[in-house]
Queue: 2 jobs
Job 1
Amino acid sequence: MTIRVPDSMRQSLWFGIGVVLATGCVAKGDPAAPDEGCVSDEKFFAAEVWGPTLSSNCFQCHNAQGAANQTKFVLRSEAETGFMEANLKIVQDVAAFEVDGTSILLLKPTLQIPHEGGMRIAADGPEYAAIAELVRRMDEPVACEDAPDETYFEGVVMADDVSLLRKVALNLVGRLPTADETARVQDGGEAALGAVLDGMMTEPAFYERLKEIYNDQFLTDRYLRNNDAVDLLDATDYPTRRFYESDEDESRRNTLRSLANYGVAREPLELIAHVVRNNRPFTEIVTADYIMMNSFSARTYGASDYAYVDRTEIDLYNPDEFFEARVPGVPHAGVLTSHMFLNRFPTTDTNVNRHRARMTYQFFLATDVLKLAERPVDPTQIQDHNPTLYNPGCNVCHATIDPVAGAFQNWDDRGRYRVLENGWHSDMRPPGFGETTVPAGDSTQSLRWLGQQIATDDRFATSAIHTMYRALTGEEPLSSQTATLRAFEAQEDLFKAIRRQFIDSGHDFKVMVKALVMSPYVRAKDYRGADRAGELDSVGSAHLLTPEQLDRKIEAVLGFAWERNGRRQLLSTNEMMIFYGGIDSNQITKRITEPNGVMASIATRMANEMSCLAVPQDFTHDAADRRLFPHVEMSFVPEDDNGFEVPGAVERIKDNIRHLHQHILGEEVSSVELERTYALFVDTWREGRAGVIDETIDRDSWNCRAERDPITGEDLPEERRVRRDEDYTMRAWMAVVTYLLSDYDFLYE
């Protein structure tokens, strides 16, 4: 919790001797340190020094592009992950320099000693007092219990454990919770929810979802088609890459080509799934000394002599069975050395791996290097001999990416391992990471060295947290540049706590996922009061479902997918996938997250078509086996021939409406919404039944009927078929199901 000190107390600090703020904070190591009301050094710095003074007053010169960029006091941009911690450390280092016992951090901005930037703050002002208190804290660091700001979420309505279970089950494994899972969570609360999640994260569907999440970043599914992945392999390095071409049977040849290409294309995504499936440290995705192959891509790589893990239980005829293997002479380093990654993010003679370096920072270090520059570069003003080294407008980014670009030195523009004979470019910074240079003995396997450096950087854990946060909430992590300080700090506190838990667990990916699931950002479903609307915009996970997620939800709720001519409508790039905001990982690489008119029309069409199929299909089953209509029969009408209610039937119809709201939308329907949905059913029924009676509407349901099993395609027994709608109840129920399938709570999650 941030405590703001009155100005009068601040002003007394630089006159007083050792004044301690009344914050309940004490020196580190004191066993009697009270936590309540404590303000840590970092929080004090963020609220009282960085925000009011450094960011708005000093940073304009003291940054990598500014006039003071050659001094020791060069602050990090707010666009950089972990900038607040880094800047506190920089400030503390500079503050340690004193003149006559007073820190230069106090003397320079008040012009008590020379300062090229002139006077920036007054010696009797609140800014000076805050910096003085920060300097005092250097001698008496404050230890606090770093817990998230609980008051930040006051007024936020949180989902209960059972509702959270449904939301997460649909997101992570694409199904509804089982009755047993729901009962366990009802009885055992959050602890039971964690155990159920543990079980879900062993299901094949979870690993498919994980690959989907990471493909949204890597976009390597671009190469799934035809020979696209296989053709990226060098024919000299892999002379058997097109082994299938020797097969004289055209059908078998095409099948082998497809399966081999699939194995090569999916290698980096399968590595991620493999690491998580086997509960390995997640850092292995950048340190693995192997690649993943299936039996078909192994033949492409010519892998008969490669070093395999134990394959005794692997089905060699299953293309989804992947195993570890090593290519002789290649120093593997997880995704970093993957052919798919290196080709998806290529290099040129002039780019010299900088694109690869930028994406490495973005994917594995939660840093968008392009945002580090505080202003756009004007190319007409660049006159330096080597601007990437000497021009501050350029080196603000190049100082970060060029060493990492050099670490890719032995991997050429085609992703081939080719050790440089003449060394790296002398006009660039030496290969390395940050301030550390690749040791001479590691130059031939510099990416393996780089992977180890990334694995020990806290930003690697942060990047994984950010990736799963996006997947679970549909939101981007907050930035201090776009969010209020309180909102940014609340989220940062949570991410730091999860990061500690993640790292302490040995980078157990599942531990991190569970921590995010239990967080307020995933639990939140609403907030009360309009006064904090802007501040709480990022809280909660209601986001438009992707085509893949909506496809899985339709099948989970109705029992079968939205298909036409054997193609799943939302998964085919030839049908609705791209129009509904999906990507093809090739030319279309960004998902649409805000619905447009076309997407709204697709949702309406889906709701109409699926209700037409699902309602009659459900009535082909006995009541006990129905998903949608366990409480009614098609003969249940709300009114008799005289227009009077049929009490027993009305109650059963309303019971079924409650069931539909719960089953389709996951909500306990309110009395108002119950009556609204019931009115829709009755009004539709009345109008339709009148048409049936006067024979303007056919009793036969020609388009919406059930004669075949929607999954197997086999004909249903005659006694189970549904062809007629004598009382127009089936079509009235279709109106209700259409209404619910097109509801916000179905299309969003």
Note: The longest helix spans residues 671-693.
Job 2
Amino acid sequence: MSRTSLLARTPPFDGLDPEALRDLGASSVEVRLAKGSLVLDAFRDPTVDVFVVRSGRVALWSDTDATDGPPDEFVGPLGLFGFSAMLTERAIGPRAVAAEDAVLLRVPGSAAAPAFESAAGVRFLAASGPARRYAQAAPGYSTVDDLIVTTPLLVPADTPVAEVARRMTSAGTTYAAVTLESGYGLVTDAVLRRRVLGEGLDPRTPAEQVMVPSGPTALLGDSAVEALISLLERDADVQLVTDRDGRLAGAVVPRDFAILPSSASASVHEQLRRAATVADLQVAARRVPAMLTELLAHGLASGRVIALHSSVLDTVVRRAIDLVLADHPDLDPDAFTWLSLGSNGRREAVPSSDVDSAVAFTDDVTPDQALRYREAFAVVDAVLVGAGLSRDTHGATAQQALFARTNAQWREAGQHWLSAPVDDNGAMMASLLVDARPIHGDPGLPEVARVFAELRTHPGTMRLLLQESLAGRARRHFVVDVFRGRADTFDLKAHALQPVVNIARWAALSIGSPALPTVDRLRGSAGSTMLPESVASTLVEVFEVLQRLRLRYQLRQIDAGETPTDVLELDRVSPIDRSVITEAVREVAAAQRRMTNIAAYVEPDAWLRPGPG
């Protein structure tokens, strides 16, 4: 096998085009080593090369203090090593010794580096075993701000595509952001190759006719890890970065992550996406709590950690669906939309959160077909339980007929619940379905969510749903009893957090807001008689403080080998946290009392009028 052919089978070089592979093969050198020969000691001297095993095996040591012991791993044919030190230019290992007679390819780092700077290279690094080692030695980037190294290239929408290409070449960039009335579009090298060179598009064509959507943008201050995962999830070439006012601040591309793609979070996420079997998925999913702990330890705010956790859970669920449906070729994966409900639907999932779900089938799915789908969804549920995710004990899962309907059936049910919310647990179903977020299939919202946008035209239902939302009271007196020694435990979710979630959900429903996260719902619906700005701001602060405390305690439980739970044990709650919880519950209870009084003495048509600040 030629050097070029060998490299074409070795990730991440397998992502290079044929010409680049030929150049890489030509620059590489074959090295023959006898058993026991030292290949490199990158703890002493950073290597400027990478090595590919053609035949034989090489033993690798990852810890400079343990090189006298057994090797950490063996690398066989098509195995790659040495890239950690090459990329970081630091003496971080490994030490490599031929475990038997071996033939290697030595590839100059200058020739190999571009392969690691591509999207495929970032994926390889994120999933690689040595990831954590060189992530710890690499510069400690924490936000996308640190990764922006050039001024963004902006072009007007009517700029001819040939001129866009010229400006990109002049600026030495692989993208141009197209300014639009609302947001930005993107012209990338890949778009130019496909549309202009491949399809023969007229070079005078305006950029707005060639561009592709920019996709979600990162904000200044966002975690670099979050931006990386967004790039990987979308297979994107560019991630635009804006300030809080939507002005373009720059962009990050795969090569910007070349020395920071391998934090635990990116590595775990990529392992989940690439899991080839159910067993692989479950093993990777059980590493997620450690990922959360690492993110917190590196300073990422708890709210962002929780949101990122929800994104990772989405990946687990999507991959479970893919793996299960691969065994059911008679079931069309495009015939349904999988909806994440509850805390994960709101992007607020913590380790104790249940996996709530529903499915909206296309209207041509027959009852018999729906039954076969639900049988497969039961297998998905079992896979998720095996991955360490919590099962919903109340049956809010897609395997249940109540939560697996066609779009037409959902629309009919939603209209019935809106007009008669006391029937068929309508209020409860509404509270579940309006938290729904599609994570597989058609990204459109379920029909039932559209139906409930009409809530304001049904004052009786509006009042009843408010009563249901306020029924779960913040247990102020109970928490005082707990901390005076009259009880042993306190359910943080049921007696403190859930009341805030319920208020926010009702407030969003009342104004027809599509927002899902509790904080966004409170902020978006603030300023009315029912929910003044001051009350909403207090509830936002309470929710964020309690979620932070909740996450921290659950990760401690996991570290201790315990099942995470929302029930706090008195002897584990510090005096400061006791004070925080007591004050938070007092504020929530006060908000509930206020809303109850308004509901009793003010007509519904006045609830949403502008209120005090």
Note: Residues 130-141 have pLDDT under 50 and may be disordered.
